[in-house]
Design a protein that fits this description.
This protein has 278 residues and is mainly beta. The protein is built from three helices and 18 strands.
Amino acid sequence: MKCAIVALLALAACGKKSDIPAPEIKADTVYRIEGIYYDDILTDSFVYKGDLLTEAWFYGENGYTEMSQYTYNDAGFIIKSVNFERFNNTMKLYSSDSLVWSASTITQYSKFSDANTILMDTPVISIDANKRIGLIRTKDTIRYPQFRQLYYTEYTFTGNNMTTNVSKYYRDYYIENHPSSFYDQVITFEYGNLINPLRMTLINNPLLSFREEKSLISVNNPTKLIQSFADKFNEHLANYNITSEALPNTQIMYKSTYKEINSDASWVMKFKIKTIIK
């Protein structure tokens, strides 16, 4: 559960409620995320060219095992990701993704290399006028020769904040004596006053969001940070509180402690942040 929730909230960390007004942030100040730590272990490292995130390195059991390179269009939206995986101490190409943005959708063209076989996938993602993702895949049941399947994730908003994340999965086999599989997950969020430092870094990069959050999307990230959330997975409900610390003399969160209510489970997420004055 910890790994899933850590990934889930890597792009939507949290803040405490406060009546203290946030200090004004000058328009020429940039808070750039250069690394993400979990329990003092550096797990992700980011490289920039100008104002754009161009490389992301991901830490595995034996060092950095995966890396992605990103290309953007003139409007600053990501249009391509090339992904590498370490094999025999060498980073080998294993997949590529191209994104086509329209007013209401993002079409993701994915190509994977698996045992000398090229695999293709083309999910379509619905977006609103503010480029926020509302639905990944469709609510239609898809039928295959051996099974039928329903699989989608949907997001709802209150004002500028995403307040609910609903994921449904169901697979029913036509094969005799083969069990069906399913899950139904609903996550709800409450927000505090600290500022989300990853929003501007990743707002135009949904592919990195998929990697970080697994089921949340960075273009849906709020400006403010989540202070608590409830995660209901099938019939199991877990509630979490998050307390956060800000960079000195700012409302920019740099460290958060996650605690599952009625459990000893807890962990710490921390950002390495570089402040740039233009």
